Amino acid sequence: MRFVLSDPSLSAEIRGALRNAKVGDVTRADLPADDENKRAERHLAVTVKQVEKLVLPEFDDALVQKVTGGKVTSAAEFRTSLRTDLERYWHDQAEQRLSNDMAAELVRMHEFPVPDSLVDTFLDAFLDDIRNRSRERQLPAGFDEQKFRETNRAHAVWQAKWMLLKEAIAEREGITVTDADLEQAAAADAGRMGIDKERLLQYYKSSGGTAERIQSDKITALLREKAKITDVPAEHHTHH
């Protein structure tokens, strides 16, 4: 196997065992047990076959053209494009964090009982999501469904409360999704997804997921208008 010592995902035990190793050395790495994945403690004897140093190429126009397949022709253009992508990414992250925080605060402000049947519906959906990740559409072998339901019940209650609050807000404020909203969404998404607009529009009209997303976005926009928002540096922000 090849290990890159600078890789942050590399386990500390293996990194420590290999940090000062030389070719021919046999070193030991003791990996702790992993209760979540039901994996027992493992003891590895590692024989070092080769040690290499990573030499980065010159960051110039030729490298940029190579890694982008000719889509970007200069290093300066690449830096500008990268900055734009990073700014867009962190803007989207901030917007998502704000939406999450507003939802969390609204749920915190309203204490009310949630029907067990609704909570169970969300838990069933969580389990279906796990099933859909496997080719056989089955839960992993040895999966403790009862423990999963108990562990995730609080999150399911939160999701149920947020759904009921959104429904109440939509009804009170008269927030609906029109055909014009769906057409606008299809026009915006068609090019990005590489799908014909009319075909995508028909799917959006037949699927309730898109209407639900649009309504949720409208509710978030309304909450943003009503909320008192204070911008803080990300490192100082604690999300509860």
What does this structure look like?
It is a single chain. By secondary structure, the chain is mainly alpha-helical. It has 8 helices and 2 strands; from the N terminus they run H-E-E-H-H-H-H-H-H-H. The protein has helices spanning 12-18, 61-67, 75-109, 116-132, 145-173, 179-193, 197-206, 208-226, and strands spanning 26-31, 42-47. It starts with 11 loop residues before the first helix and ends in a 14-residue tail after the last helix. The model has no long low-confidence stretch (mean pLDDT 90).
Number of domains: 3
Q: Total helix count?
A: 8
Largest sheet: 2 strands, antiparallel
CATH topology of the largest domain: Trigger factor, domain 2
Radius of gyration: 25 Å
Please write the CATH class name of the largest domain. Mainly Alpha
Q: Low-confidence parts, pLDDT < 50 over ≥5 residues?
A: none
Strand content: 5-15%
Structural class: mainly alpha
Give the name of the CATH superfamily of the largest domain: Trigger factor, C-terminal domain
Spatial gap, N to C terminus? 41 Å
Series of H and E elements: HEEHHHHHHH
CATH architecture grouping of the largest domain: Orthogonal Bundle
The number of strands is: 2
What is the general shape? extended
Instruction: Provide the spatial order of strands within the biggest beta sheet.
Output: 1-2
